């Protein structure tokens, strides 16, 4: 397979100023006529990308070409042209119903009732027509759709509507004009029977906009929360960044068949139903928050991605990291900022740190790729967002806004690079941000080691910081990066100490940020009147792993007193990890175990603490994060040790107190969506988990009642999970009931698969195999595949990593079948093998055999081959 390198970038040889697309739509057969208005930029033949297209005709300036007038092959149509401007017209045939890869034009749902839609990012447009399918070719689009009126009553494309009418034979047409030049990956169309909800909106700069959310009739009533989120997102972007929407209509469409979460096509966002539908009966609290976040994310792309797009796919994080950052800030403003930070960092640690520690590790801006679809990763998205957060922190609120204004102004209507972004932010503030470029080019999670020394006589505290990034694929030597470390010093009684940094400028405060940009740095604080406990990397000020040799009682001080909500939680996580290590080594009553359980027992009795924060504090790191801390992983041992950690906490608090708290929360449980009600449900769920750790049968009794009385999905699913994890037999009736009750609700059924896919232990594989035989399971639906196979492989360590390797062999078989249907989804599931090298020897050997065998095959897609090739190295 060919590898594409960032250093080989060359500007496009031809621009497409304007494109006219004409679709004659049908499920089995769609014809596409594309008329490209071309302008030469370099002395090269015209090369258009095209894959899987049946070429029917091609003409240049009205002259039909014969097969000897062009070269067709290897995914390109090459035409030698000797003028500088011309119009090339191609006519191609497509077969949407046969498209199981869900890239290009395809059918969602059944032949009788489903609808047609497109997915073009990253390189799907070349499956629709011949085109220079690269993000730095920006064109104005005019799109005409024609179809049978009865079968396809709704016709949508991006841009503003520009006429519609009747045709002969029961057919009709609709035209759309997009005045904003855009790259081909932002093209979209939708055609079929869809219902809608609508709302009028007026932008801050006075433009009336019609907002429409479309979905199949049976789910349209579940789109109201998405509409509400959309309106709040639009206002927020006006208020926070001064960005207004720029078309007369904005469409959002829900589909059950989608490879990604959602897609920001200009004026026509398309969503995986999972991130658009939300109703109290079938959506959990988490899902409401996800809908709010993803609706905002895709809307925010209209500026960070669409108006200013990426020069090439290496710059993907330019739009994704930035948009995730914008989305996270929005969610923090809508909900609780510290809780949002905890959630985001937990995700980074669960998804990005492991990715960056294995063979699939890559920089936020990769230097090379063979299949770009495999770079829609946690690194590009979540770590990319952390980099923007560091820059925003460096510039401050007003400075960051100034920089963003300049970035949008300079690059509007253009395709930009990470350098363009940094230079706009920097120049608007007279600050040189180029040192931060190194973060974009260097993979791996930096380790920041810190040590402190207090000199009581001199009343001086000396803090030493050292940084080091481990070697990774293709990068043996790592450089030092600028790492902002926000810090404070606490006295053991919880007082924050004034910080008088020697040689520091700035006023004396209780919190400050130092930036270490060398391998080592030393900071001296004067007039420190007691030996302090440092609170470092507050708010998670940089995406690094902090190593500081805290004594358990020092962490307990921070857990009790830190006013930075994130660091308070973090102190608890660190302390829990120390307690975990002790329990693993058989030290039941160690200082760490006592300090962790003791501090939490005290917080548990503190009425002032918010229910949601308490629930987070009472949750130790998950199995996946704990796995990352071990040199050689044995999932069974990790699970057992984590269970005893929970048991130690539960018995320290006391079963009766847990039960009491559970009952009082349960008594006031409603299905309401306000923050307090959600927090109560979350804490209740923690109570149930903790009760289960000391008294499974009591937990089951409570869970069964909770399942039966649940006012909504959050309580119902939490109860089902407890029932199923504490006793699979005892849960059979509830599992059957759930299956029956939600038989017609695809997203709820996904949860039914997901709960069972994650049940631990040796029976897990057999259970998953039985679930594959359920009438509703299909490899053709990405959500269903992720719910069962994806979660089993990624989120069920004891089940997937069976010592006999049976689950590895089973997954390999499924990957091959899945690859024949949908390469993108197969490749994503295959990333579950990323960590195989750090398994204990027996499992490692079993995984290796499977990975090597798969990687040696020559009949797999480029997507899957790329992942396997890198994982096997
Ligand atoms: N649709 C994906 C996202 O918004 C890729 N652009 O992140
Ligand atoms: Zn995005």
From TrEMBL:
A single BP term in Gene Ontology: proteolysis
GO molecular function terms noted in the UniProt entry: alanyl aminopeptidase activity; metallopeptidase activity; zinc ion binding
InterPro entries associated with the record: Aminopeptidase_N-like_N (IPR045357), Aminopeptidase_N-like_N_sf (IPR042097), PepN_Ig-like_sf (IPR038438), Peptidase_M1 (IPR001930), Peptidase_M1_dom (IPR014782), Peptidase_M1_pepN (IPR012779), Peptidase_M1_pepN_C (IPR024601), Peptidase_M1_pepN_C_sf (IPR037144)
UniProt EC number: 3.4.11.2
Keywords of this entry: Aminopeptidase, Hydrolase, Metal-binding, Metalloprotease, Protease, Zinc
Cofactor(s), by name: Zn(2+)
Transmembrane segments: none
Ranges for domain Peptidase M1 alanyl aminopeptidase C-terminal: 553-870
Superkingdom of the source species: Bacteria
Domain annotation Peptidase M1 alanyl aminopeptidase Ig-like fold: ranges: 444-548
Pfam families: DUF3458 (PF11940), DUF3458_C (PF17432), Peptidase_M1 (PF01433), Peptidase_M1_N (PF17900)
Residue ranges annotated for the Aminopeptidase N-like N-terminal domain, each copy included: 101-186
Catalytic activity as recorded in UniProt: Release of an N-terminal amino acid, Xaa-|-Yaa- from a peptide, amide or arylamide. Xaa is preferably Ala, but may be most amino acids including Pro (slow action). When a terminal hydrophobic residue is followed by a prolyl residue, the two may be released as an intact Xaa-Pro dipeptide
Domain Peptidase M1 membrane alanine aminopeptidase: 225-433
Stated family: Belongs to the peptidase M1 family.
Name of the protein: Aminopeptidase N
Organism field: Luteibacter rhizovicinus
């Amino acid at each position: 397979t060919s590898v594409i390198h960032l250093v080989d970038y060359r500007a496009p040889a031809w621009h497409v100023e304007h494109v006219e697309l004409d679709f004659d739509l049908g499920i089995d057969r769609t014809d596409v006529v594309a008329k490209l208005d071309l302008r030469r930029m370099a002395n090269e033949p015209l090369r258009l990308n095209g894959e899987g297209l049946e070429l029917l005709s091609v003409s240049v300036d009205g002259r039909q070409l014969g097969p000897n007038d062009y070269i067709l092959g290897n995914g390109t149509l090459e035409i030698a042209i000797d003028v500088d401007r011309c119009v090339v017209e191609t006519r191609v045939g497509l077969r949407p119903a046969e498209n199981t890869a869900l890239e290009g034009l395809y059918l969602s749902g059944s032949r009788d009732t489903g609808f047609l839609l497109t997915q073009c990012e990253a390189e799907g447009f070349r499956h629709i027509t011949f085109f220079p399918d690269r993000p730095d070719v920006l064109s104005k689009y005019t799109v005409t759709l024609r179809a049978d009126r009865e079968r396809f009553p709704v016709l949508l494309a991006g841009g503003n509507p520009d006429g519609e009418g009747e045709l002969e034979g029961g057919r009709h047409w609709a035209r759309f004009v997009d005045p904003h030049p855009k790259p081909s990956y932002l093209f979209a169309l939708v055609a079929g029977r869809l219902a809608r909800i609508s709302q009028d909106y007026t932008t801050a700069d006075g433009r009336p906009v019609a907002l429409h959310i479309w979905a199949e009739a049976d789910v349209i009533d579940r789109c109201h929360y998405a509409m509400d989120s959309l309106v709040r997102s639009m206002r927020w972007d006006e208020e926070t960044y001064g960005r207004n929407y720029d078309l007369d209509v904005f469409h959002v469409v829900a589909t059950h068949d989608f490879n990604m979460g959602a897609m920001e096509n200009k004026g026509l966002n398309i969503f995986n139903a999972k991130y658009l539908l939300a109703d109290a009966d079938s959506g959990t609290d988490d899902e409401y928050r996800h809908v709010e976040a993803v609706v905002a994310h895709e809307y925010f792309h209209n500026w960070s991605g669409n108006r200013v797009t990426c020069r090439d796919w290496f710059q993907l994080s330019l739009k994704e990291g930035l948009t995730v950052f914008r989305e996270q800030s929005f969610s923090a403003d809508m909900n609780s900022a510290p809780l949002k930070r905890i959630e985001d960092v937990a995700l980074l640690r669960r998804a990005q740190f492991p990715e960056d520690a294995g063979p699939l590790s890559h920089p936020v801006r990769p230097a090379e790729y063979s299949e770009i679809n495999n770079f829609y990763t946690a690194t590009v998205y979540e770590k990319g967002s952390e980099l923007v957060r560091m820059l925003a922190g460096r510039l401050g609120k007003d400075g960051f806004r100034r920089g963003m204004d300049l970035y949008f102004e300079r690059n509007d209507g253009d395709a930009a690079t990470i350098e363009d972004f940094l230079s706009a932010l920097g120049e608007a503030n007279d600050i040189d941000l180029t040192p931060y470029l190194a973060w974009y080019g260097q993979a791996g999670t930096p380790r920041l080691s810190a040590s402190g020394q207090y000199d009581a006589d001199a009343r001086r505290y000396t803090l030493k910081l050292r940084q080091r990034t481990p070697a990774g694929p293709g990068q043996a030597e790592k450089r030092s990066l600028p790492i902002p470390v926000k810090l404070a010093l606490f006295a053991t009684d919880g007082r924050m100490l004034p910080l008088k940094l020697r040689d520091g400028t700035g006023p004396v405060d209780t919190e400050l940020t130092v930036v270490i940009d060398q391998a080592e740095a030393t900071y001296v604080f004067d007039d420190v009147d007691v030996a302090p406990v440092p609170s470092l990397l507050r708010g998670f000020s940089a995406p690094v792993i902090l190593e500081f040799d805290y004594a358990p009682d020092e962490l307990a001080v921070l857990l009790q007193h830190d006013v930075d909500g994130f660091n308070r939680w973090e102190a608890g996580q660190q302390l829990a990890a120390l307690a975990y290590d002790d329990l693993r080594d058989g030290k039941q009553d160690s200082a760490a175990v006592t300090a962790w359980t003791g501090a939490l027992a005290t917080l548990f009795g503190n009425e002032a603490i918010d229910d949601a924060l308490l629930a987070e504090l009472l949750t130790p790191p998950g199995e996946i994060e704990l796995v990352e801390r071990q040199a050689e992983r044995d999932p069974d041992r990790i699970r057992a040790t984590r269970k005893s950690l929970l048991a130690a906490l539960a018995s320290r608090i006391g079963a009766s107190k847990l039960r009491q708290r559970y009952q009082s929360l349960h008594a006031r449980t409603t299905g309401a969506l306000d923050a307090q009600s959600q927090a109560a449900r979350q804490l209740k769920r923690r109570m149930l988990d903790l009760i289960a750790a000391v008294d499974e049968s009591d937990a089951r009794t409570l869970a069964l009642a909770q399942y039966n009385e649940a006012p909504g999905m959050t309580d119902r699913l939490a109860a089902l999970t407890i029932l199923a994890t504490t006793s699979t037999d005892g849960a059979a009736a509830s599992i059957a009931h759930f299956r029956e009750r939600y038989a017609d609700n695809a997203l709820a059924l996904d949860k039914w698969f997901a709960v069972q896919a994650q049940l631990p232990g040796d029976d897990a594989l057999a259970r998953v195999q039985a679930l594959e035989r359920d009438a509703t399971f299909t490899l053709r639906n990405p959500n269903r595949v992720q719910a069962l196979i994806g979660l089993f492989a990624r989120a069920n360590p004891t089940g997937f990593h069976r010592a006999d390797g049976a689950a590895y062999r089973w997954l390999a078989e499924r990957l091959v079948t899945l690859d024949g249907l949908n390469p993108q989804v197969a490749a994503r599931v295959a990333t579950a093998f990323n960590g195989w090298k750090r398994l204990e020897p027996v499992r490692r050997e079993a995984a290796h055999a499977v990975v090597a065998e798969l990687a040696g095959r020559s009949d797999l897609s480029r997507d899957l081959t790329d992942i396997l090739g890198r994982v096997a190295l």
